[in-house]
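User: I'm preparing a small set of examples for a lab meeting where we compare how different chains pack in three dimensions. I only have the primary sequence for this one, and I'd like the structure in token form so I can line it up with the others. Please keep the answer compact; I'll paste it straight into my notes.
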Amino acid sequence: MSVSQTLTVDLGDQRSYPIFVGQKLLENPDCLVPYIVGKQVCIVTNDTVADLYLKSVESLLADYQVNTVVLPDGESHKSLETVNFIYDCLLENKHNRTTTLVALGGGVVGDMAGYAAATYQRGVNFIQIPTTLLSQVDSSVGGKTGVNHPLGKNMIGAFHQPQCVIIDTDVLQTLPPRELSAGMAEVIKYGLICDKPFYQWIEEHIAGLMSLDEALLVEAIARSCQNKADVVAQDEREAGLRAILNLGHTFGHAIETAQGYGVWLHGEAVAAGMLAALELSSLMGDIPHQEVERLRQLLNNANLPTVLPANMTGEQFLQLMALDKKVLDGRLRLVLVKAIGEAVVTEAASQDQVLQAIANCS
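Assistant: Understood. Below is the structure token output for the 362-residue chain.
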């Protein structure tokens, strides 16, 4: 018997949208077809996912003009140059303002398809069908879209909410173990920032989650999405509260930029970044150091890195972290933890404390 849940991202007016989580959803037209506007669909996917799931989605769209863009796989291709392939397809096939883009893939595909949808003819509809755990619990929900620049990750983008999000947990059966671990970093993040009982639940069930227990995966994904939806509903454009979703990301984005996009997976960089953030929280006296070790053990159990890259200096971290979108007027703002389940955005950390936290995690 399949397990499923339906959540809502509540943005008021007519912009609220459902998140469907469960098994065999790629076979269910009721999750997809009602959310398509017009008669034109452009599916955006990559060359890995296309071989696995493209036919399933196309089979639900027999009554539409369907064009498909198959992009190269990987974070290194998340650029304006790659987005141009999507624009080319839309223009060559005369897609109008009622077209719907369908993002079928991981976070890179979702971010680029969403950005194309936000900017094509000044904004058209799109639907997220995330195929990695990381994209299911993070990037597919909340309307952030964009691309990387050689000088900084996700520095070019737009807020553009999807019509719906379809999360089929069956696709995780084909996910490489390293990608599963990367997604688990974002699941753990929600417990740390706003849901202490969930953090404890993850600790208790991490073995089952890593072995792809279907019921546990549906619960973990739904709980993660609900936490993110609650935050986004309160602060859609990251004017304040939404920034807590970036726990570990300021350190993590510095790792991704320095190592080259895709060398460290996003979730791997976030995992090491979260540990550095908790180390800094401990140095500032907000949490006992045993909470740092508790997180280290959980990350180990999820097969995630717990040491920062050996080839990065503290000064290099500071230089790259200064490019972060949360920096205001030259002041480094970091997401830290006051207690498990309670995150805060602060400028209170000194440069020396940040450098010490980096050294302690290297």
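A couple of notes for your slides: The chain has two domains: 4-174, 177-360. The first strand starts at residue 4 and ends at 9.

User: Perfect, thanks.
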